[in-house]
Every structure is written in C-alpha cells, then in structure tokens.
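Handout, page 2. Input:
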Amino acid sequence: MEDLNQRGKDYQGNDLKEKIWRIIFLSDSGTARGFDITLLFLIAGSVLVVMLESVESVAAKHATLLYGLEWFFTILFTIEYALRIWVVRKKKKYLFSFFGIVDLLSILPTFIDFILAGSGHFIIVRILRMLRMFRILKMAEHMGDANVLMNAMKASRPKIAVFIFSLMAIVSIEGTLMYIIEGGVENTGFTSIPQAVYWGIVTVTTVGYGDIAPVTVLGKMLASVMMLTGFAIIAVPTGIVSAELNREMKKVSMDLRHCEGCGYDGHDPKALHCKMCGHKL
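Output:
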C-alpha cells in the first residue's frame, strides 16, 4: 500500500502514465486483466509461429506469412517493453529483474537475425513470459503450497546427494565388471569402462536404449540383476522427497492460527488479523 501511495505521488499530474502503469503491472481492474490475458494469447501465438517455422513443410509453404507474423509479434512486444520502461518508477530494478530480462530477450532475436542467420529461433524464450499467468490468475494464495514443496526439496538435498553418489559408485563397479565380462567379445559395444558405465546407467534407470547389449550368459545374468535392482533404486528418491514433504505439511498444519471470533483455522503463521472476520489473532 505504501508503494502504491508513493507511486501516486510520483505520477501526480500524469494520469496517462498512471493508467498505463496500472494496466500493465497490475491486475486490479477489468482492463488490466484483459490486457494480461491478451498478452498471454499473443505470447502463445508468437511461440507457435516460431515452432511452425522449424517445420520444413510448413515453412516452405507459408514462409511469407510466418515471417510477417513474427515481425508483427516482435513489434507489439517491443512497444509493450518500451511502455514498461516508460511507466515503471524503478527502471533499473525492472531492467535487471527476471521478467525484465525475459522481456528483452523475447524481442532481441528477431533483430539479431539480421546479423546472425538462424538466431531468430531463440525467440522461443517468449514462452517464459507465460509465467505471468500466476499474477493474472490471482494464484498468490497457492504460493504457500509451493513453499512447502520447495522446503521439502531443500531438506531432501543431502539425502539425495548421498543416494546419487552411492548409485554412481554401484554403477561404476557393475560397469567395470561388465567390461571385464564382455570387453573381449567383438561387436558388443563394451569397448571401454566409461562405455560400460554408460550402459549401466541406462540399464539401472530402466531407459534401455538398446545400442549396447551383453551377449554372454554371465553378462546377461549381471544385466538381469541390474534391471531388477533398477526398480527398487528408482523408488528411493521418491520416498525421500515424500517423507520430507509429509514432514513439512505437518509443520504447516501445526502453525496454522485459530481465530477466536469466527473459528477459522486457515491463517498464515504471521497473520495479525483474521482474513474472514477481521478479528485480532
């Protein structure tokens, strides 16, 4: 609220700038929401154009149309980017923010394409601007759930790091054994220990490209053991994250504050007043 009041003082006597700022940076009115939703459709359309340009049959038949559409979207986004710079009060903060950089990168490739052919396809970064939908769809109330997930992931990092290190050690040993078993056989693909370790990773993760395969009985037996243990190994990181996620959810449920006025229990731990009745917590 303080920032809005300050902005109101900064834009006194410049109603147009204030209106444009509210439309572009806020979603507190029908016009602003309409602008944001239109922007999302334009971003999606521009990304679709870039994708279609990579399809040879479509590009050959509709090259002129796709080229025109790409410039149409680029000009619109350039105007929008210029407006953002014009109306924002802390210009440097916006220019070096995540969205500020993405907004710039979404228009640069088309201009650079004049100098470096093919660079226009990097304009696919426009899809990152779709992240603005979290603001448009009023999803801020879900950020608490996102924080729970992030905390669970952070708490899982040491355990997952140990798991990955142990897995790499096991795969290295098994890959070396496979090289000893299959290395002397022609046309098996086990030409070196790194190649055998690569095969071990592909096998344990149940990907199975099939580009390398054992042919001896002993090699097939070792491969069978690795395939079976692969199923159990895949479940380990899932269990680690699930346990930490369950722990975080218990913390959140314990931290929720109770309102004596209306009995509502879904308040943020730092809330001072009930969001349902306004009663002081």
